[in-house]
Amino acid sequence: MKNSIKILILLFSTVGIFSCNKQQDKNNEGQSGALASNAAERVYVAPGEYDEFYAFISGGFSGQLSVYGLPSGRLLKVIPVFSQDPEKAWGYNEETKPMLETSHGFIPWDDAHHPDISQTNGKLDGRWVFINGNNTPRIAKIDLTTFETTEIIEIPNSAGNHSSSFVTENTEYVVAGTRFSVPIPQRDMPIKDYKGNFKGALSFLSVDPESGRMDLKFQIIMPGFDYDLSHPGRGKSHGWFFFSTYNSEEANSLLEVNASQNDKDFIAAINWKKIEEYVNNGGGKKVPAKYAHNIYDDETHTATSTMENEVTVVDPTEVPGAIYLLPTPKSPHGCDVNPTGEYIVGNGKLSADLTVHSFSKMINAIENKKFDGEAYGIPILRFEDVLAGTVKQAGLGPLHTEFDDKGNAYTSFFISSEVVKWKVETQEVIDRQPCYYSVGHVMIPGGNSAHPFGKYVLAMNKITKDRYLPTGPEVTQSAQLYDITGEKMQLLLDFPTIGEPHYAAGIPADIVRENSRKIFKLSENKHKYATISNGDARVERDGNEVHIYMTMIRSHFTPDNIEGVKVGDKVYFHVTNHEQDYDVPHGIAMIGANNSELLIMPGQTETFVWEPKEVGVWPFYCTDFCSALHQEMQGYVRVSPK
Ligand code: CUK
Ligand code: CUA
């Protein structure tokens, strides 16, 4: 077994190199895949026109979420989530610093992987986007009226929060699964004692249907596998959640010798409705766990961070009939459910085939108690009893699958660098198109819901090599857009992406556009340090703290000449933007402030702190070109000796 895997891996890498070398000659050959002859026309969005879809593309190691228009591929915004962003003062101003608090302290970076849009009755409703932070496990929520991150919750007992953040069909839950199994609770113990002692926490965060507030409702403490991706059941399988696993050997080192010994790992099928009921009836155990829950309040425009200290955990054996393991070949990565909820596709990344499980067969096997052993008390179903079929020799290194609204699936193949279209019912391959190169995820707007919009598939590539102008040792990562309205996919467009795009969520623009907020009313500003009336602009001293209550409007600050500040003071600039027009932010930056600028939206207040170290008369200015007199929007602070 070990040898055959070695050969497989060798074969895969050879093919990978071969396909890249081949593509490097593409300029000579004039080859660029099945590029549609009128591709330019089909992605062209005329000046002043809107795109048809929003695409929210994860930034991977940039920690952020970028917003693109499709089909044009135009970048519309970068929404700061897990990483500090000086452009928007995210994590720099006093209002948003609490958003990046964790039980480990202030952590201004994370690895953002999988965005998912909220749903009602299995349809995208465009209210929120959820996205996971892998490294210091977190889930964030972005409000799509403001395109701002309004909540971040840390996930305790978890590490490498990768199987996240997918939502159930009424956004009852957003789910967070651990990648690493770890000692729960964390403690000092030999790593070699992993097997049987390390555990994997799968977390279910309830979402309030009105406010959207997330709460960590329960965690299922699973065997010590690694958990990879997950997807919710829908339609007939609503109430279930599916997680792919690897390292079912429970090896503490994943060097080739240890990992992938087992021919099959598992997809864990979890009846969350059953577990929810158990917890609602007082089941589970409350255990101590420290985790931060950070909320950005819409009225005060200020975040607060609360440290929680316990969580409800459930041992699978306490709730018989709630969890089953479906054997799935070759270290499955993606774990995707089709729009009807009948098929669960496991993409074994060391395989050339795709495994398609049947939900009805699974239920049947459960009812007939056809088990093939167990793992820590969790029944293992027989592979043959749950298998709907196999997509044979579809490509090399399958990672992720999305679905259109016509019964087709689209699977990315990392090693053979292509997207393969196949029929879900019959598992027959219909088309394949190359990706440049090494595609990770693919995305169809609504592809993770019961109602996909099967017009385009977006491939997110890990390597671009010769596709773009060189920019030093690192070249951009990219997305490729294919038209999928016909039998064959047609490549329309390449465009560069921010960070490493791991996944994206797309939605028809109309659903979001209508609700996009234009203005914050000054009269509704409840910020603690807001200056609503210009007459209230002032400077107040409180010990060695100086509070400047400042206003900004085209094209001046009030006050703009500030005296009475001393070296060693802590100077708070509380700045309120008095504009009441759409799209008129002002900025402010202070020389020598160990900080970023503030970029303040009309009607809002933000605060930064400046600690002057030297006497002098120090200027500040507006950073956003706001009017013909933008350059005149400035002021001075006089700093006197202590
Ligand atoms: S993982 Cu990146 S290509 Cu986080 Cu979705 Cu598969
Ligand atoms: Cu205000 Cu420039």
From TrEMBL:
<dbReference type="GO" id="GO:0030313">
    <property type="term" value="C:cell envelope"/>
</dbReference>
<keyword id="KW-0186">Copper</keyword>
<protein>
    <submittedName>
        <fullName>Nitrous oxide reductase</fullName>
    </submittedName>
</protein>
<dbReference type="Pfam" id="PF18764">
    <property type="entry name" value="nos_propeller"/>
</dbReference>
<dbReference type="InterPro" id="IPR001505">
    <property type="entry name" value="Copper_CuA"/>
</dbReference>
<dbReference type="GO" id="GO:0005507">
    <property type="term" value="F:copper ion binding"/>
</dbReference>
<dbReference type="InterPro" id="IPR051403">
    <property type="entry name" value="NosZ/Cyto_c_oxidase_sub2"/>
</dbReference>
<dbReference type="InterPro" id="IPR026468">
    <property type="entry name" value="Nitrous_oxide_Rdtase_Sec-dep"/>
</dbReference>
<keyword id="KW-0479">Metal-binding</keyword>
<dbReference type="InterPro" id="IPR011045">
    <property type="entry name" value="N2O_reductase_N"/>
</dbReference>
<dbReference type="InterPro" id="IPR008972">
    <property type="entry name" value="Cupredoxin"/>
</dbReference>
<dbReference type="InterPro" id="IPR015943">
    <property type="entry name" value="WD40/YVTN_repeat-like_dom_sf"/>
</dbReference>
<dbReference type="InterPro" id="IPR041114">
    <property type="entry name" value="Nos_propeller"/>
</dbReference>
